[in-house]
Design goal:
The complex is a heterodimer of chains A (293) and B (337).
Chain A (H helix, E strand, L loop, with lengths): L1 H17 L2 H24 L1 H5 L5 H11 L1 H12 L3 H6 L1 H5 L6 H35 L6 H32 L3 H21 L1 H5 L8 H5 L18 E2 L4 E7 L7 E5 L5 H24 L5
Antiparallel strand pairs in A: 1-2, 2-3
Helix pairs in contact in A: 1-8, 2-4, 2-8, 4-5, 4-8, 4-9, 5-9, 5-10, 8-9, 8-13, 9-10, 9-13
Chain B lengths: L6 E14 L2 E14 L3 E5 L6 H8 L7 E6 L7 H4 L2 E4 L11 H11 L4 H14 L15 H13 L5 E5 L7 H18 L2 E5 L3 H7 L2 E6 L2 E7 H7 L2 E7 L2 H13 L5 E3 L2 E6 L3 H14 L4 E8 L2 H11 L14 E2 L7
Parallel strand pairs in B: 3-7, 3-8, 5-6, 6-7
Antiparallel strand pairs in B: 1-2, 1-4, 8-9, 10-12, 10-13, 11-12, 13-14
Helix pairs in contact in B: 3-4
């Protein structure tokens, strides 16, 4: 069972790594990062950047990790995960083997997460280095950036699980991936982008309050150059913020401090995992009754 | 059909209905059949007869409306049963970005073969099917014939006990057809594999199969062994005369022998059963004796194609099955003057 799941996951990872759209995704992310960097740099002034108060490096990372381009891209990838295999007939070959439909869905899910882990690893390593080369900030803040990147890297994978699982569910229901993708765009707009633009939009959402932070998490960059030493929050919900603070002012050894305000990181993780599992179980149930013609 | 041997494939009262805009469409209608262990069974019918639907029901890809399917005594939903099934679909459906070797390794692994055995089987099949040079090439760049070979290879890579082939030799050149049939025959002989082959090429099937099932309008209209069919099929003697005068003379000879004949232009056709050769010889002697000009004289067997065609015509379906080239037991040259 495990071997079959791993085979499907491996195939999914390689299949996605080969697609040329990865390059488009990278290009969008880099353009976003450069524009954001230029904006932040002009707003803060180069001195503050060099002091490591709001490094352009991790602003970039924040955007790609929890930003809309990232979500849209993973939904694009996941929206064709099941229906494309059914339409092309490749699923037909797989299901004549001792591979259950449950194993197939789990393999696909893990494969997409694996793919996200790989491309984001590349981005989180590559981009800060690239930015350092082009924008040339002080090298003593690089360790902070690496640590922040690591935390954010893990978070980006966790954050994507819910969107991947929803995409997979719709991919088992709808024949065309474009339908699934448009639905996912709608979900991202309604539950992610709209609440960021207008907090009141979240109040009328039918999503239970405990679940809302999972969808409404967004990027915010809190630049505090006052008495508090260098601090940055990067996960913000419409209810309150889950702050990750970088404290590098007291000693030269940077530390990452997670401060819990209205929702804790643990709660966020639990909700994400539980929701993803529930959605995948529904997807398996739908898929198990489906004719493969 | 031989019922003494335990059936590998057993289908009872199988029905599949699809919902359409016009209501329910019954693609498979109360179908029952058995394929005994180690037998090669042809599964024949015109397009839309229900062949592919029945195969997909056998493989568990479609959920049946009613009925029961047993493969080697078990259910297709049992993963142990799936391990002994091989399937080659009509259409080539691959991960086209994968190379042939990786694809076969993946399919072998999914079939439960251990890594070393998967590698060994992959190499063996690549060599047996003449794909050595292309094994590292992406399948998407293969010709249709090469894709067909890969499709066949993935179906047999785990030495399945039950093999289901859907149009296995379509798009293959004669040499590749022979190659594929050779590998199939060898495997069946070695492993006592039960094979169900769906094909439109009846002449080609005739060389391979032990049994035949004909399906039309979702119903089985023939389920018999090839031997049974051969015993029941008739022969005809066709005599081609050179002019109308000779035709009249030949008809008189035939009448004198107490046989009935029909005439089409300058051709005289008379039905014969197992004694066709004897009748032919008698007529031949009479023709020589009376100095009649005959350009051709042949004994024709009613082929499997003729049997299937007749059945389908009786069942009210226009045929879309590919007609084979007629082969004749030709003695014509002897009588030319």
């Amino acid at each position: 069972m495990v071997l079959s799941i791993l085979q499907i996951a491996k195939r999914t990872i390689f299949e996605n790594l080969k697609i040329k759209n990865n390059l488009i995704y990278f290009a969008i992310v880099i353009i976003f990062a450069i524009l954001f960097n230029l904006g932040i740099s002009s707003y803060l002034g180069i001195n503050e950047i060099e002091a490591g108060i709001a490094s352009n490096y991790f602003v970039w990372a924040l955007l790609i990790s929890a930003g809309a381009p990232f979500l849209i891209y993973i939904c694009y990838i996941a929206s064709g995960s099941i229906n494309k295999e059914l339409n092309s007939g490749t699923a037909l070959m797989l299901f004549t083997r001792p591979l259950s439909r449950k194993e197939f869905i789990i393999g696909k899910f893990l494969g997409i997460l694996g793919y996200i882990a790989i491309i984001n690893a590349f981005i989180f390593l590559f981009v800060p280095t690239l930015m350092n080369l082009f924008f040339g900030a002080s090298t003593n803040i690089l360790p902070i950036i690496w640590k922040l990147s690591l935390v954010f890297y893990v978070f980006s994978i966790l954050f994507s699980t819910i969107f991947v699982s929803i995409s997979i569910l719709f991919s088992t229901i709808f024949k065309h991936s474009i339908t699934v993708f448009l639905i996912m765009i709608g979900i991202i707009l309604a539950l992610y982008i709209l609440p960021i633009i207008n907090e009141s939009a979240l109040q009328i959402s039918i999503i239970p309050n405990i679940v809302k932070p999972v969808f409404a998490s967004t990027v915010s960059v809190l630049i505090d150059s006052g008495n508090v030493s260098n601090s940055i929050s990067f996960i913000s919900t419409a209810y309150g913020d889950v702050f990750y603070k970088i404290d590098s002012g007291i000693s030269n050894a940077p530390r990452i401090i997670v401060q819990n305000y209205t929702s804790s990181l643990t709660l966020f993780l639990v909700i994400t995992v539980v929701l993803s599992i529930i959605i995948l179980i529904v997807a398996m149930s739908v898929f198990s009754k489906k004719d493969i013609a | 059909m031989d019922t003494e041997i335990r059936p590998s494939i057993e289908v009872k009262n199988l029905t599949k209905e699809f919902s359409t805009s016009r209501g329910l469409f019954r693609a498979v209608d109360n179908v029952s059949f058995k394929v005994s262990s180690g037998k090669i069974c042809g599964f024949v019918g015109p397009n839309g007869a229900g062949k592919s639907t029945t195969i997909k029901l056998l493989l568990g890809l479609l959920q049946s409306t009613s009925g029961d399917i047993k493969l080697n005594g078990g259910s297709i939903n049992d993963s142990e049963i799936r391990k002994i099934i091989g399937y080659m679909p009509e259409k080539d459906t691959f991960y086209e970005d994968m190379n042939a070797k990786d694809y076969l390794l993946m399919m072998a692994s999914l079939s439960g073969l251990p890594s070393n055995l998967a590698k060994e089987r992959t190499e063996t099949l690549i060599n047996a099917l003449g794909l050595e040079e292309a094994k590292k090439r992406a399948i998407g760049r293969f010709s249709s014939g090469m894709k067909k070979k890969i499709s066949f290879a993935q179906a047999i890579i785990h030495n399945p006990k039950i093999l289901i082939l859907d149009e296995p030799t379509a798009n293959l050149d004669p040499i590749a057809q022979e190659q594929l049939i050779g590998v199939l025959k060898e495997m069946c002989k070695k492993n006592n594999t039960t094979v169900l082959i769906s094909s439109h090429h009846i002449e080609e099937l005739e060389k391979l199969i032990d049994d035949i099932i004909v399906i039309n309008h979702g119903r089985i209209i023939l389920d018999a062994s090839l031997n049974e069919i051969k015993q029941k099929t008739s022969k005809t003697i066709e005599i081609l005369a050179t002019n109308q005068n000779d035709v009249t003379k030949i008809l008189a000879i035939v009448k004198k022998l107490g046989l009935e004949a029909t005439q089409t232009d300058s051709k005289v056709i008379l039905p014969a059963k197992q004694d066709a050769a004897k009748i032919q010889k008698t007529i031949m002697q009479a023709i020589v004796k009376e100095n009649i000009n005959v350009s051709n004289m042949t004994i024709k067997d009613e082929s499997l194609w003729d049997v299937v065609l007749g059945l389908l015509k009786d069942d009210g379906k226009t045929i879309e099955i590919k007609e084979p080239e007629k082969k004749e037991d030709n003695l014509g040259g002897m009588f030319k003057r």
